Amino acid sequence: MLKTRVITAIILLAVFLPVTLFAPVGAFGALIAFVVVFAAWEWARLLKLGGAGPVVYALIAAVALVASTRLGSGVEEPRPLFQAAAIFWVIAGPFVLLRKPALAQGAWRAFLFLAGIVVFAACWHALVAARMKGVPFVLSLLLLVWLADIGAYFSGKAFGKHKLAPAISPGKTWEGAIGGWLVVMIVAAAVVFLHAFQPTLYSALLAQLGAVRTLLALTALVAFSVVGDLFESMLKRQAGVKDSSGLLPGHGGVLDRIDALLPVLPLAMLLLG
Fold first, then answer.
1. Is residue 61 helix, strand or coil?
2. Which PANTHER family is this protein grouped with (predicted)?
3. How far apart are CA 241 and CA 136, in angstroms?
4. What is the C-alpha separation between 167 and 182, in angstroms, rounded?
5. Residues 199-220, buried b or exposed e (16+ Cβ, 10 A)?
6. Which tens digit of pLDDT belongs to each residue from 211-250?
7. Handedness of CA 188, 270, 141, 263 (dihedral sign)
């Protein structure tokens, strides 16, 4: 299992890093669109859309990406799309995690059907807009989520005692979440202090918001990375599956890899708007 996981990770990095570092923005956008469409397919499967439903949903998501981009005029930041996605995560995200409405409720499934299209389109636009700000910027944005996840894992293993959401994800603890937050703060402070790899998300937030509000903004982004992770865990639990799919051997599905990014990306771009 570990060998499979490592091999898959190496292949993913061998594709993602060169495209991110060296390819034009258009090629980067095409790669992210490919990822997002597969994530949409998995989202539909978690909603238990039968038959060809997941494939149709993925096609709808692909059409939404094209429709939300002004062809021939470059990629622009669609602020209303970011706002719609942010509203979903800020209001609906925590609400449904507390209420945990069942997928058997038709209105709830219909709501997630529509919300998913907005969420995935906003995710794509946010990543492309971040890449247009520079390679260090998009990598620092991704790094925030990766650091929060890695820090939470090791902190939870070492100190975890108080469950964060036992009914949704029994392995997550408050100590782990706090540890992930601390790792993000330490790395962000070091990057800003050393003036490394400019421009980054951290330096951009500091220049625009000041020190105190940057601290609050980063805290909010870390918190919503946890919300995204828990939200997908809730969908998987209700669907009765361990992973969103088996597309990535050893890692589960695409959605399992990007769930924490989904709320963070549009929120981060709005904070800098």
1. helix
2. PHOSPHATIDATE CYTIDYLYLTRANSFERASE
3. 36
4. 25
5. ebbbbbbbeebeeeebbebbeb
6. 999 999 999 999 999 999 999 998 998 888 999 999 988 8
7. positive
